[in-house]
Amino acid sequence: MMSKFTFRVVWSIGFLMVLCMTTFAQTASLSGRITDQNGQPVLGATVQVKGLQVATASGADGNYSLSNVPVGNQVISVNAMGYGLDEQSIVINAGENSLNFSLIETSSDLDEIVVIGYGIAKKKQIAGSVASVGPKEFNKGVVSSPDQLLTGKVAGLTINRSSGDPTAGSTVQLRGPSSLTASSSPLYVIDGIVGASIDLVAPDDIVSMDIMKDASSTAIYGSRAANGVIFVTTKRGKAGKPVLAYSGYAASESISNRVNVLSADEHKQFVEEHGLTVSPVETGHNTDWQDEITRSGISHNHNLSLTGGSEGTRYNASINYFNNQGIVKRSNQERIVARLGVDQNAFDDRLKLSLNVANSLKKGSHVDYGIFNGAARFVPTSPVMLEDEQYAPYGGYFQVPGRTSYLNPVAMLNQRDENRENNTLLASLKADLTLTKGLTWSNVVSYQRNQYDKVYYMHRTDFDSKALGVGYAERDNYKNIDQIFESYLNYNLTKDVHNIEAMAGYSYQKTKNNDGLHARSTGFLSDDLGGNNLNLGTLPTGYNPYADTPYILESLLISYFGRVGYTFDDKYILSASLRRDGSSKFGSNNRWATFGSVSAAWRISEEEFMKDQELFSDLKLKAGYGTSGNQNIDPYRQILIFGPRDGQFLYNGEWVNAYGVNQNENPDLKWETTSMLNVGIDFEMWKGRFGGSIEYYQKETKDLLYEYDVPSPPYQFNRLLANGASMTNKGVEISLNAVVYRNENFSYNTSANFARNINEVGSLESNIENIGVSQRYEGGIGLEGWTGQTASIVLPGQPIGTFFVANYIGYDQATQKTKYLTPAGEVVTQDQISAPDDYMIMGHALPKFTYGWNNSFQYKSWDFNFFLRGVYGNQIFNATRADLSRLQQANVTNISKDAVEEGIFETPLIASSRFLEDGSFLRLDNATLGYTFKTDKIKYLNNARVYVSGQNLFTITNYTGVDPEVSLSGLAPGIDNRNYYPKTRSFLLGVNLTF
Q1: Is there a contact between 807 and 767 (Cβ–Cβ < 8 Å)?
Q2: N or C: which end of the chain has fewer CB within 10 A?
Q3: Angle CA(681)–CA(682)–CA(686) in degrees, nearest 5?
Q4: Sheet of 802-805: strands edge to edge?
Q5: pLDDT (tens digit, 9 = 90+) per residue, 757-769?
């Protein structure tokens, strides 16, 4: 029987084809080449028929091709980041037409065409908060994920990659944290496909990334857009001769900083000076444990693309191969991304069909992060291996029996195998039908499948009791499927000084996640097959190999949406949008919600009283208000769920697993809702030599999802997910760009951004009577002897990441005890502290502001770029330093040089401000020097450039840990908790070729 999803797709395509055969209007094609003032091709320039939704982008050779252009008088506009707008009038005749453009470099970006929800628009005609970044501004270096291209480039957008692990992703946050439970990641829209995986795009295939920051811009995506929207536009085929392009680099990566612990000689001297005795078996060796687990990594990236076609049929194909060898031995990532796109015109160019298929295959070897704690703490005078029968059960690796939390890091590295594979496929078909001039009907259907496979194995010689002598294996294999159908109409009418834009549509999304299993086994006789055949294990009696397998998660989202915009005389701009979402994720009483927005802008520079001045070439005031939602939770959280419970019971003479309620029902569960006010000014001065924007926003999120403790009875389970809490973010963002100097041979462009965000937790009460909390302790610190210790608190009136610890005031050398000040003003010692009653608010993990500064120089064929970024005003809880400050235990563990200089011999057993440090930093993120060869006399070569680049070249900071850029996600950000994969410093040599 045909599913509803299939029926909708077939019906819409059939209806579309009928309309195609019953409508007719005369159109033609237009092609040409876009170059800069030096005659060099401009990649990614947007070419549009003014007043129509007919647009394309130039290829690597500067060529472009537009189909479906109405015959008659038309105005063609060309826009590219870093260049001024160029518009030319042309009479379009039947058949083929040609028009070339030469762009003038400028700092202005107000005229560029940007992608918005279900359409495109000129940036200067948008009243919301929009930032655009193109290939020229992308971060250079070894990039494991496309979101890292934007790090530090957009005010208010925080992209945090807190380690150098090639298999780890980034956390992305826009305008501060806005949830207690749900994900805070933005929504990605890739070539019009909502929610597409960012892994499906190779960095070299991206033409532009447009970031929608405020709710007036994102409300059109309703329940998925509270965290912002990032549009990714990739290369498309163009009419003309085939263009073959290759880009690639090879890079060397090394560790940028180490944990500052004692060497073997320094450790030996320290223990001797302080009368400590080290076990004889742990002496006599010189082992640098950090060196033992790290290496210099070699990475390389290769991207090959082919574009071309005729006026009626255009194609693009690309393949990207990326191999990132981690600086920690046995860690690496290998990625292949293949993309194919075909655009076909039909019915006198009234119908445009676009077929796209992309596949990403990522394979990675992951390491147990416990090796980093082990490499810092293991005594440096102990050996890696010993030829002694005592250590034969451990594979010859040196271990200390009786100390289960003290594992040889080299043994852990080599005796634990974890291989991950992630295969993501996206296929989409889009049909754009021009019903009449200015009216286009679009239908999009997409299918995305993600297959995740993880094999984990602990050798029989692993020191962990779970594996020693028997081995231990886990296998995870899941499939996630996302199906989307969207149908929408776009209408654009320009008459005299009036421009009207309208859009209306429907969306259907069906998702199925966790379709697979988690299995585990033990009792292996050999390590040869690792975790690839769990059936070879011999399970002990009562062992359940599928105990932790999650259930399948299915959800449905149905939406109706629309937007209308009006522009008068290119200076008064109004826009409004409305979206109605229905989701199966929420309770029966709250399945539907409505999200809307309104925005307005006044382009003052277009007024008559501004015509005679020459200071401002563009000046726009803008304001917007809107609401959006967050539904980033698992399905079924609203219903009563039964499942396995701890323990067994005797039934008919046999012990069977106990089952019971492990989730309460909540029919009132609903979306988190974010409302945002955004006001700002966009400006351009001295004919584009200087420009930027200044924005202020207030963001309030209500009905936050939070899990509360509830009494049982009357509830059947002691936890309940409910709405009710609130949070606010408000801040200022400044973006500036300038052409500092420019002549025929030399140019210097610079841009900078600044963002200040203030986060505050509101109420933690739920919307259910008598259920709520006044505060919540977060950030558990799992050091030896620190049972139950936390470092953070979620407290109304305070931001996320508030450090709540003991107030350390000094060290008494005479008594050799640390001293603390209680909230009551009493001076006490460590053993007199009552945690957390004697704790105080001592700092915050979120920075006061972030900033970035980009500089680009060009001299004839040479180009040079460097980018600085930083944060200011945040604290980090350095749990690594706390763990390495046990001077009295130096006979059984290594210690840090900082602790030796500090000279405090009392073992730290509480979380205190002693370990809070300034996390501010300024980093030279990357610097690139390139040379572009003249290729006009080489027949088959259109462009050739070579470059060298350095990444993470230096960091200025007072932080004593490995790196001040620690994780800022979750409810306890800013904790450096020992298990830290070091950041890398890389140098690479690259080449770009176009044929």
Answers
A1: no
A2: N
A3: 125
A4: 776-780, 790-794, 802-805, 840-844
A5: 999 999 999 988 8
